[in-house]
Design a protein that fits this description.
heterodimer; A: alpha/beta; six-stranded parallel β-sheet; three-stranded antiparallel β-sheet; 18 helices; B: about 400 residues; alpha/beta
Chain lengths: ~400, ~400
């Protein structure tokens, strides 16, 4: 079997919750040895979150969210609040290519994980720091916070809502995932730079900055026109109708996005051309765009009568861009996702058989991903402290007693 | 020396997903040659915002942002002479980024097998709505559709009170296409490493929908591990987070773990209604979220945004202000970080733009302006590929370039 592209690369991962772990997941799945350093002093929130405990029974190795973010990795325990724990952490850093951390800046300083400190331990280290608003700059660089606070700060939630309404939250913890894939790209660029020049560096990633760069329409409109766009619902800059419409059933919806006259005519044909569609203003894209509220009201009356899955199929068959708003049950049943190869089956010693998403990419020349079981808390203590650092069994036992390996 | 300055990328892509991926490569130093349809160019050239709301193909804020640092070559690859030019460009490229609908390249004679034969080391990065196989392969996707189908789309906005009135919303901009773009960029770097180690090129299938669905891990796992369907409705989802009103605006905070709940109580002067034992554990708080939320919401209205944020952060509470885009664009911290950059362009003059998605200390992204339509056709075809002025004139007359 061919090698995975990151085999031979070692990552010491101090990160937790979502953004750092999702970044490290990419590296682990593609062959890097990712050593997750965690502690019983303060467990990774995703190990304890009640959101997805297998069969609703709590336990640090039973969390589905953790499993989704940690397959392919190794886990060791270190109590970084102790000097010995930090010294052992530095021993790991000496033997690695990347370090990942996503603590608030004051904690990073306290734990000895700043770039200056780690560079002194290993000169060509690539340190990936992920934070709310970056670790340099003014006072917010010291803030504690979660992804959604970054979105709040840079205007995303104010722009997320119904016209004239209050700010709303974008689904889940969008900024954490948004920054993770962006960081993977930049971390691999930094690795390429190190391999060419021998120079390491500090990636000081700000969730706020990733979000800013991913909503350019809002910022460029402000920079060009001084306009604060704020909430636009589902209104597009060009397409109309362009919205989610109610369907038959409980909280069922369909998204329809019409760009061209051809797509509009096809939509009208599927509706069997009711009288309202013949309005002369609706014959052109600018006319439809100006009258989109009216069109939406008519369209909703029609979509309401239909099943969202059937209607999406019917509209697509007629050449109309449409898609069902899928819920968590429907995505697991979706034929396309299974055929494309989105899911994989985990057989876990505590959680049993579960379905997890892989990486959302197909590589034609990479044999597969590292899908080893998500690690139990401290599962690799002996392998890493014994094998990699060369500590004897007695020494490891002593460090466990002293709550250093803890 | 920039990390990717030895790479040549051909971008055969329009709008957001492929071009954003190409931008990341250009900003890190790669030579990105953007192929555009003659005359009209990339569709994004016709998308708002425009200065003064006057459409102009060199002034679209969306296009100017997505295409920093690239070279523009116009090319009609449906014509024999255009296909020949593409073949020659492909022959010494490292990466081809494309977001044509599945099968389109093949119909032009540039399916993966043909590309591989032309250049076995080439990495072909195909960014599409749904991917290169499966029943939705030929569906028409747009950003709204990819997003709405992604579970994160179903869950936006979060915590819905009235399902009839609050339909699922797209996030501002092109969120699903952006997620496809960064996923494609990350995957392309992995494929480049594979190529550098083995000499072997490959084909990457990057769907925007699956990339976006990958951001709904909590919602997916709740079903797969507990068998509980995820609901966006407040009445069914229980605890959750959202912006909360204060006296002069909104703040965002959370009270999941013990330390944060204690800090929040301290910040709000210990409201009596949430002091009991009932609220001492994470589970207790989740079960009684309605009481906590109502109490906290009422208390927040007594305080101003900046006061809550500065005192709350000093107490170790994750709490932040909810700003508008205009406020963020003038924010001193973001400015001090270099979150925005200034770029000059002949058509618009100097403007601020969003800066790098991610900041690197030794090799930061560097930005130069987006190209005018066909600006580099003569340079690439003439100087690079050796077409004579007479050839170029003939290609122009025939509408190939």
């Amino acid at each position: 079997m061919a090698k995975l592209p990151l085999e031979g690369i070692r990552v010491i991962d101090f990160s937790w919750i979502i953004n750092g772990p999702q970044t490290a997941l990419w590296l682990a799945a593609m062959g890097a040895e990712v050593i997750k350093v965690e502690s019983k002093v303060y467990l990774d929130y995703m190990r304890v979150s009640p959101a997805a405990m297998a069969d609703d029974i709590p336990g640090p190795n039973r969390s589905g969210v953790f499993h989704n973010l940690a397959f392919g990795k190794k886990s060791v325990n270190l109590n970084l609040a102790t000097p010995k724990g930090r010294a052992l952490a530095y021993e790991l850093v000496k033997r690695s290519d990347f370090v990942l951390e996503c603590f608030p800046a004051p904690h990073t300083r306290k734990l000895g994980l700043t770039y200056e400190q780690l560079k002194a331990v290993k000169a060509d280290i690539i340190l990936v720091s992920i934070s709310l608003l970056g670790k340099t700059g003014l006072q917010p660089s010291d803030w504690v916070g979660w992804g959604p606070m970054a979105a709040s700060y840079v205007g995303m939630f104010d722009a997320q809502g119904y016209p004239g309404g209050p700010p709303r939250q974008t689904g889940g913890t969008w900024p954490d995932y948004a920054i993770a894939t962006a960081v993977v790209f930049h971390a691999l660029a930094a690795l390429r730079h190190r391999d060419r020049t021998g120079e390491g560096q500090w990636i000081d990633a700000s969730m706020g900055e990733t979000i800013i760069g991913e909503m350019p329409e809002w910022f460029m409109d402000y920079f060009m026109n001084g306009r604060d766009r704020r909430q636009l619902g589902n209104r597009d800059d060009v397409m109309a109708p362009h919205n989610t419409y109610p369907c038959n059933g409980d909280d069922k919806w369909i998204a329809i996005a019409v760009g061209t006259d051809g797509e509009w005519n096809a939509l009208c044909a599927v509706m069997e051309s009711p009288a309202w569609t013949k309005h002369p203003a609706y014959a052109t894209q600018p006319g439809r765009w100006k009258n989109s509220a009216e069109i939406d009201a008519h369209l909703s009356q029609w979509t309401r009568l239909h099943d969202h899955l059937e209607l999406a199929n019917k509209l697509q068959a007629a050449g109309v861009p449409a898609g069902p708003v899928l819920d968590s049950v429907e995505v697991h049943q979706d034929t396309h996702l299974w055929q494309w190869g989105y899911w994989w089956n985990l057989e876990h010693h505590e959680a049993g058989k579960r379905v997890l998403p892989g990486l959302p990419v197909k590589f034609s020349a990479v044999p597969g991903f590292n899908l080893s079981s998500p690690p139990d808390l401290g599962q690799h203590n002996r392998e890493i402290f014994g094998g990699l650092l060369g500590l004897g069994d007695e020494e490891i036992a002593k460090l466990m007693d002293e709550k250093i390996i803890y | 020396m920039k990390p990717l300055d030895d790479l040549r990328v051909i971008e055969f892509a329009e709008m957001v997903s492929g071009p954003m991926c190409g931008k990341l490569f250009a900003d890190m130093g790669a030579e990105v040659i953007k192929l555009e349809p003659p005359r009209t160019g990339d569709e994004a050239r016709h998308h708002p915002p425009f200065p003064g709301d006057v459409p102009h193909p060199e002034k679209s804020g969306l296009f100017l942002y997505l295409n920093t640092g690239k070279k523009s070559v116009t090319l009609d690859v449906r014509q024999t002479a255009g296909a020949e030019i593409l073949r020659r460009l492909i022959a010494d490229a490292d990466v081809l980024i494309e977001n044509q609908r599945p099968g389109h390249l093949e119909s032009l004679g540039f399916g993966y097998q043909a590309l591989h034969a032309l250049n076995p080391k080439l990495i072909v990065t195909s960014v599409t709505p749904f991917g290169q196989n499966g029943p939705y392969r030929d569906w028409k996707g747009t950003d709204l559709i990819e997003w709405a189908m992604s579970l994160t789309g179903y869950n936006t906005p979060t915590l819905v009170d009235d399902a009839e009135k609050e339909n699922p919303l797209r996030a501002p901009g092109h969120p699903a296409e952006m997620m496809g773009a960064t996923t494609a960029a990350a995957a392309t770097m992995l494929a480049l490493r594979h190529r550098d180690l083995t000499g072997e090129g490959q084909w990457l299938d990057v769907p925007c929908w699956q990339s976006t669905l990958n951001t709904a891990k909590v919602e997916m796992a709740a079903y797969s591990y507990k068998g509980v369907p995820f609901s966006r409705l407040r009445a069914r989802s229980g605890a959750g987070l959202e912006p909360l009103a204060c006296r002069n605006g909104f703040v965002y905070t959370l009270w999941t773990v013990d330390a944060h709940f204690e800090a929040l109580k301290e910040l709000l002067g210990h409201p009596e209604l949430i002091e009991g034992d009932l609220f001492k554990t994470m589970k207790g708080r989740a079960d009684n979220d309605d009481v906590i939320r109502t109490t906290i919401q009422a208390a927040l209205l007594n305080y101003d945004m900046d006061d809550l944020v500065s005192r709350g952060q000093a107490l170790g509470l994750p709490i932040g202000a909810v700003y508008t885009v205009a406020h963020a664009a003038e924010d001193e911290h973001l400015k001090a970080r270099g979150a925005f950059v200034e770029i000059d362009h002949p058509a618009t003059g100097r403007l601020r733009y969003p800066g790098a998605l991610v900041r690197l200390s030794a090799t930061p992204a560097e930005f130069s302006r987006a190209p005018m339509l066909s600006e580099h056709t003569d340079e690439i075809l003439g100087r690079r590929l050796g077409y004579k002025p007479l050839d170029l004139r003939a290609l122009r007359t025939a509408g190939v370039i």
